[in-house]
Amino acid sequence: MEVYNGPYLIIKYEHDNSRLINTWKSSPTSDIAYRQELIKHLYIVEEIKPAQVLWLLEKLTFKVDDATKIWVDENISKPIFKAGIIAKRQDGFDQVAFVVGHDVLAYIEVMDIFNEHSTSGFKPKYFATEIEAKSWLNEDLNIKDSKSGDELTIIFKGIDDKGKAVFEFKEQASNFASTINSIKTIIEQSHFIKNNVEKYSSLTPREKETLRFIVKGYTNEQISEKMYVSHHTIRTHRNRVWQKLEIKHFRDCLKYECFFKKVIFLSLLIYFP
User: Fold this and answer.
1) Could you state, in order of their start, the residue ranges of all structural domains in the chain?
2) Taking the alpha carbons of 191, 194, 195, 201 in that order, is the dihedral positive or negative?
């Protein structure tokens, strides 16, 4: 039964399953439009009180910014969670499922709404297909797990008309969420390197070596033993690293760990077959 057909969002309700199905029929063109549709979703959830919610993101290309993520967490997710409307499964997940769209980056931004900094308390599940999402919501625990030897494969497909390298990722559907999170981490680290490479390049070889040990968790005394210098010298190196990288908190220093990983960052056009 269709309960809402807005400018961008269609909402249907399956009474037998107590399931609300949200489908983006087109992508919002602005932050305001995105929020307005989610407010409508909230009103319908509060009125119908479904036990389950399914989001189909096939046509969503809108990239949610950080301010909107916080707004969604505080004004949409938290009221629904506090009201106890959505049922929780025995595996600890809330009965909220998201199905990926063609725009993986937009999907990643939606996933980030429910990251470790979320205050709403929601723990949704992410799927590659609508069939798998519905099977999970139907508590079908027989969804096939990946078999031994079925590893992630990456195939180079060529260059598109915009000069971007095209790769095909093939992964077991049961590993879909973890694969998406891995891609998200690579993208975030790539952006961090691009934005901070000049600062990092300003470090001397000894300062870089000191930083490498710091992000691994070594103390000044341990680093001095590794580098065969006094701990006073290491303290000097550390202070200069802090100054050059404009580090105010130790957690900011840990972000530079990506400079010491053997990861190739590419400008990719990513799609899942």
Assistant:
1) 2-140, 150-273
2) positive
